[in-house]
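ESCALATION

Customer reports they have been waiting on this structure for their group meeting. Please prioritize. Original submission:
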Amino acid sequence: MFSATLGELAGVAGRRSVRGVLLPSLVFCCLALLVFATGRGSAHDALHAWRQGSWESKVLVVAGFVLALVCVATALGSAQTALIRLAEGYWSLPVRRTIGRLGRGHHRRLVRRADDACTHDRYPPRTRPDDIMPTRIGNALKAAELYPRLRYGIDAALVWPRLHPLLPDTFLTVLGAARTGLTALLASAFLSVVLAVGGAAYLWTAHAPTPVFLLCLWGGGLAAWACYRGALLRAVVYGQHLRVAFDLYRGHLLEAVGRPVGDGEDERAHWERLCLFWHRGILPHHVATADRPAHPVPDPTPAGAPPGFSPSISHLTAAAFAAAGLAGALTGGG
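Update from on-call: job pushed to the front of the queue and completed.
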């Protein structure tokens, strides 16, 4: 039975690797090869050169393609956590103070204008504006992270590594599938941006026809936007699974550590004492301090912006792609 279980887990892990890493890498390498061949001439000329080439040259081309595919897939597989944090909005200080500040201001205005039914699973509560993230995916995952804290007094960052091994296999399969869908779409969006920018730069230096240049730049940008929108839906689903994990299985963790909630005991205070013990080594019999109060922060409208206008990072990215395409079409191209 143990070997059969290991085989099932290996099969699931293999399917997740194919879906989340190998397929995006394969599509990226194929499109990159097509862009490279287009920059060297027409597709017909590239196909003719392939047919006329020797078998040694064909073996070298195939080996180089496989090597590039392995390198891209390996790098992508090791950078999945970094891609999620990048999509959430955990950026370096200069970017966080400029683009991040613009994104947070945009989403704070959206939260203030929207009703609770539209924002409860996509944004932190409007009473906690300091927790608003600069991206939509970041806000969806932040809302899921804050849910156990606001409902049960559980610090998700401390409790989740301890709760995760106790989850049943069926739930782990569903949770892993949701995360794989999120990482696969984020990887596809990232590779689409790399292909759009890098491929367009190569085609511009190779003096490729302007329609081909614009197709690579704007088509790659559109594909990245579509993948990001799909990743946002996956992030919402993944966040719902995280909420369910705390709702259904938090009692398993209390039983595992030998501290179940007693009769008449406040569960929230119980969890707060445990989190203090795990975080700072404070003994559970100490009284936990109350969570910090939420203070609304001022959110001034950018200078010169008309009333109701709320620029977002998506707007700036689309404007940058449009400007780059027009500039490249006017200065290069065949």
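Sent to customer with the following note: Confidence is low (pLDDT under 50) at residues 1-13, 299-307.
Escalation resolved.
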